Amino acid sequence: MSQQGYVATPPYSQSQPGIGFSPPHYGHYGDPSHAASLPGMIKPAGPLGTTAPGVMLPPGPPPPGPHQFGQNGVHASGHPPQRFPGPPPVNSVAPSYAPYEPSTQSSYSSLASTSSITQLGHQLSAMQVNSYGSGMAPPSQGPPGLLSATSFQSPPQPQQPSVLQPGSQVLPPPTTTLNGPGASPLSPPALRQDGLPGPAPVNAQYQPPPLPGQTLGTGYPPQQANYGPQVVGTQLSYPGGFPGDPAQMAGPPQPQKKVDLDSVPGPIQVIENDRATRGGQVYATNTRGQIPPLVTTDCVIQDQGNASPRYIRCTTYCFPCTSDMAKQAQIPLAAVIKPFATIPSNETPLYLVNHGENGPVRCNRCKAYMCPFMQFIEGGRRYQCGFCNCVNDVPPFYFQHLDHMGRRLDHYEKPELSLGSYEYVATLDYCRNNKPPNPPAFIFMIDVSYSNIKNGLVKLICEELKTMLEKLPKEEQEETSAIRVGFITYNKVLHFFNVKSNLAQPQMMVVTDVGEVFVPLLDGFLVNCQESQSVIHNLLDQIPEMFADSNENETVFAPIIQAGMEALKAADCPGKLFIFHSSLPTAEAPGKLKNRDDKKLVNTDKEKILFQPQTNVYESLAKDCVAHGCSVTLFLFPSQYVDVASLGLVPQLTGGTLYKYNNFQMHLDSQQFLNDLRNDIEKKIGFDAIMRVRTSTGFRATDFFGGVFMNNTTDVEMAAIDCDKAVTVEFKHDDKLSEDSGALIQCAVLYTTIGGQRRLRIHNLGLNCSSQLADLYKSCETDALINFFAKSAFKAVLHQPLKVIREILVNQTAHMLACYRKNCASPSAASQLILPDSMKVLPVYMNCLLKNCVLLSRPEISTDERAYQRQLVLTMGVADSQLFFYPQLLPIHTLDVKSTMLPAAVRCSESRLSEEGIFLLANGLNMFLWLGVSSPPELIQGIFNVPSFTHINADMTVLPEVGSPYSQQLRMIMSVIQQKRPYSMKLTIVKQREQPEMVFRQFLVEDKGLYGGSSYMDFLCCVHKEICQLLN
Fold first, then answer.
1. How far apart are CA 890 and CA 895, in angstroms?
2. What is the pTM of this model?
């Protein structure tokens, strides 16, 4: 591959009206020079300097980017404009929605001037997608459309980039303030989806430029494996609302130019290609630095010395050898670790190693645990640590002779020598106060204020707990669960219940002093479920009646958590509080909150206050909870503002989970809530946990993102950690890395099992190192990169203006791609946007992140919902964040009722919908069934048991059990999508052209947002322009 820099003539030597330039502003995550900045900040880095990576644009206007569309219109070049204008103020002119039209045209036409749309249309249509290898002629030298295609192969295959390039020139559009006098636009190319081999289409020649509003001609071959009706192209929206500018919200809709979505790389094709090459196969982890199948690909993982990607995924599987190289590329070096990930039944569960009183064998210097990276020497009497290179004596009990290859004779008999992941039984040295832990306890705490009694929620919870208590998690070999349970109800005061097995009736004790909470009873509060079953059932029957006449509406919140923690402390055991709560805690007590939901702060530098807790009570409470192994899971049932940013802090920092059901209605929402409750009680969980991530010399873990609490820089403390929680860890160089020894990571989690045994869970992973940038780009995983960017951005919202964070994300995206363009790609026409094969969907995912409501407010999204989504993403693993930012959209009308296969997904764009179609969309939190106005009557009859579209009841949240093949197939598909996800997705029925469609459209993430946020096409243009600026 050509490694030389390729310098272009600057495309814009004369200043043009409407294009302001500002100095480059990059998001460098943790440059040493910014060490003093606030914790959790995304830090801007210095300018690129002479090693600036390069991408070039053609002569003519640049693809529009945020510079041209500042909120103040035209900028003089001396005054840098804001990169990311904020979204429109809430009171700005509401957009007028055009009526819904057939699927080829967007129904919500962008509200902008025709000339600028035409100009952007020309530029976009000029981007050609193709791929070429390093040894081939770059596309600019040969006829377009005759280039070889990239294939998505397993890791050893040399990767080739995607190239977006222009064809011949077309007539200039009229002069506007956006494109300068007579600047010539780019022209329509022969468009090809990269990664698809095959001959160039015969009709891929020059076409005259389409007029504004006219669809593109016939020179667009259908994308292979294109699902659903073939659409010439989605309507292109004006990029001025990037990510939302009030100036563009008014005015009549204009006719628009279409550009084919299939001409640019999309996630669906990448996912399908990976499934085709790696799906259903065995993936063995015996090679250092190999790239695993995507999270969306089903395969069988065989541990052969490195941890399964179910436990650890990395942003890149090849680290740069030096910190200078890392700074040059700006690709974050991070691992997303999910230590308790669920393993499918066809894979081997973790082996448990027990060395008795000797405990695990560890390096004397760095304390790393025995693992496959340790090298035995001197006939097996000593070993060299793979992490710090210290030579240690082998303890006498552990000695074994070596074979002729220098490997221990018992290598394959010991999990810790031959596997990437395994567990150790911990000795008393690893226990609190050097004594074995007690089994954990669950405490159920029910808000019995007036509204919860009235809407039937309290009764529902009590009824459900009767059955749930029989399904408490237990050790695999045990017959019954060791978990003890306790019950508290509360409003302004706390009610503790004595449910000791020898009582005829439960006894209630009331604590009215909520300022200094104490536990009024020890014996009889935490009990064994089986022994006290009749007393507990008695209590659960009585609670709804006991408070039936209560008119108390005020509640407390912090004292409840305090009470639960004190109870666990008194019982000397770790545990989990299940709190069922519904309102802002306004009663006089510690942690009392006021309504501070202020829409005036949105789009200002003070917007970050909305994400910060109101009081420091909850943070110090969380700290105490972690110290005593008390995890908090909160089920919220708000009907108005409850300050999720404050209430959710304790669940977040204690490794608990937050569930939220807005405007809870028994007949619509009870199923979703009960599914979540059952799942949460039964899931695999470890208590009172401490995680330490060790690395080999040359780099170290510097930053941690997730539901974690840290008292120092190395120990990640978690009151509990379950199978759905992931911690994202960022690494930085502190020296050079060597290509020979690679980069080694060991994650050790010390925890207490559900049965009360203290254990260590160890995950080891070896990565490659290289001094070639091309190797670094070849080994990237986009899904893990987006997980990292989302968490670092969401952590930063507490300290930085959202506009700055969005800017940094765009700049870092451009910087990573520019570095590749300059250092790894063959020289080629300046106008090409070249994407590394491993990152070809980075722009579409990054645009989804930028449009998420946490980083970009929307009028219909509440402050609480934004805080809720922020908290959820912070603990997500890679598979969950992938689906959350880019939802799955399935055409249900193409169902084959005889097949058990899911229908092939389509891209999340309105251009993929059709009036005759039915589509299912899921993102891990929500599920929508969208019905076109001309949906086939036989499908409607089969799914809903009604004769036509008009008869469908859109209020239902559960599909009726019809018994037809269509119904059974659809329900099966929904359960397959649901079963791997931590949250129960509530179903919403959306009928085309009815009001709920507005909400549904926000999930079509490749299109322009209604309230700001670019379309994917516009964002590509913006990134392309940023790249060009970096290089010139």
1. 9
2. 0.80
For residues 964 and 976, what is the distance between their CA atoms, to the nearest angstrom? Answer: 18
Of 276, 674, 661, 323, which Cα lies nearest the Cα of 471?
Answer: 674
Render pLDDT for 778-820 as a digit per residue (tens, 0 to 9): 999 999 999 999 999 999 999 999 999 999 999 999 999 999 9
The span from the CA of 462 to the CA of 863, in Å, is: 31
SS3 34: helix
Q: CB of 770 within 8 A of CB of 321? A: yes
Q: Torsions phi, psi of 635, nearest 5? A: -105, 115
Query: What is the average pLDDT score of the chain?
Result: 81
CB 1029 within 8 A of CB 24: yes
* HSE-CB of 813 using CA atoms within 13 angstroms: 33
Are 710 and 704 in contact by the 8 Å Cβ rule? The answer is: yes
CA–CA separation, 465 vs 544, rounded Å?
13
Q: Please, what's the b/e burial string for 240-269 (b: 16 or more CB within 10 A of its CB; e: otherwise)?
A: bbbbbbbbbbeeebbebbbbbbbbbbbbbb
List all residues 6 or more positions away from 854 whose beta carbon is below 8 Å from its beta carbon: 794, 797, 866, 869, 870, 873
The token duo for 669 is 């929402």
For 565, residues 6+ apart whose C-beta sits below 8 A from its C-beta are 577, 621, 624, 625, 628, 630
Type and span of the H or E element at 270: helix 267-278
Tokens of 900: 């058990």
**Could you write out the three-class secondary structure of 530-591?**
CCCHHHHHHHHHHHHHHCCCCCCCCCCCHHHHHHHHHHHHHHCCCEEEEEEECCCCCCCCCC
Rounded distance between C-alpha atoms, residue 159 and residue 776, angstroms: 11
- 233 CB-contact burial (10 Å; exposed 0-12 / middle 13-18 / buried 19+): buried
pLDDT digits (tens, 9 = 90+) for 264-281: 999 999 999 999 999 999
Give how far the C-alpha of residue 182 lies from the chain's centroid of Cα atoms, to the nearest Å: 44
Q: What is the pLDDT of residues 501-517, one digit of tens each?
A: 999 999 999 999 999 99
Half-sphere exposure of 853 (CA within 13 A, CB side): 20
End-to-end CA distance of the chain: 22
DSSP helix/strand/coil, 381: coil
pLDDT of residue 257: 52
pLDDT digit string, tens, across residues 71-88: 333 333 334 333 333 333
CA distance 808 to 24: 10
- 185-203 mean pLDDT: 34
Q: Are strands 128-131 and 44-45 parallel, antiparallel or unpaired?
A: unpaired
Strands 312-314 and 318-320: unpaired
**DSSP bridge partners of 705:** 728
Task: Determine the pLDDT at residue 980.
Answer: 83
Q: What phi, psi does 632 have (nearest 5°)?
A: -120, 125
Q: Of 1017, 1005, 1029, give the one whose Cα is nearest residue 786.
A: 1005
Q: What are phi and psi of 767, to 5 degrees?
A: -115, 155
382's tokens: 């000593």
Beta-ladder partners of 921: 889, 928
Query: 364 and 403 in contact (C-beta within 8 Å)?
Result: no
Beta strands in 714-785 (DSSP E): 716-722, 727-733, 743-752, 758-770
Question: Distances in Å between the alpha carbon of 18 and those of 117, 174, 176?
Answer: 15, 15, 9
DSSP-assigned letters across all residues of 316-378? BSEEESSHHHHHHH----EEEE-TT----TTSPPPPEE--GGG---B-TTT-PBP-TT-EEEG
Least confident segment among 100-114, 356-370, 587-601: 100-114
The single residue listed with the structure tokens 């931590």 is: 982
Q: Residue 116: is its pLDDT beyond 70?
A: no
Which segment of 125-129, 684-688, 781-785 scores lowest on mean pLDDT? Answer: 125-129
The b-or-e profile of 756-782 (16+ CB within 10 A means b, else e) is: bbbbbbbbbbbbbbbebbbbbbbbbbb
